[in-house]
Hints:
Helix content is about 45%, strand content about 15%. By secondary structure, it is of the alpha/beta class.
Amino acid sequence: MSFSGKVALVTGARRGIGFAIARTLGMGGAKVAINDVASPEEIEEAVSALKREGIEAWGYVVDVTVREKIREMVEDIVARWSRIDILVNNAGITRDALFVRMKDEDWKAVLDVCLQGTYNCTKEVLRYMMKQRYGRIINISSVVGVTGNAGQTNYATAKAALLGFTKSLAREVAPLGITVNAIAPGFIDTEMTRKLPPDVREMWLQQVPMRRWGDPEEVAQLVAFLASQAAGYITGQTIHINGGLFMA
């Protein structure tokens, strides 16, 4: 899949799934902008890793919940590379707790990043895609947005909302050559999931028919397909990648 001449923005891309997505798009020829709320040194380290593989990349320390900063970032990307073709809304956080014990600030923080952040980034990028009459928007949801999960009412709510957002926006912008799709990963082997206690990891693993964790690169390859010309007639869909944990 070639992305030569295309420009991509991947949020929450310092590490894990986001970094794998940025790397895969970049290896396909895309110019890649990554953002995260990490330190400037951490963002620069991620950008340097991409550049060492011959990828033209730029990094932004930007909080996706701050609309004005998102606008500045998108304007800078367009000023730098003249266009923006692919947006991957990957930024997300968890603040897990049983609902009766969940703090108001933890409920709000998760919805602000996972849902409002997607709104902010999409709103700023979409106006350029509409002028181009071309674009690919890919929202990273989660299996728990479909199945639910005890202790993650905030996260599951935000990820479920992304599915309705995806379908509705897809209907609005399809006539303009813009596709909007969602990906719902299951349990993926990342730095965040490696912090789970071994017994918890094993418990979840036993629920996956394939008996293994997913690899970030597998999610990245699916993103690349949906961002490619080959997926031009796919829009408004939720693609599950979970080793059989959930079967729609």
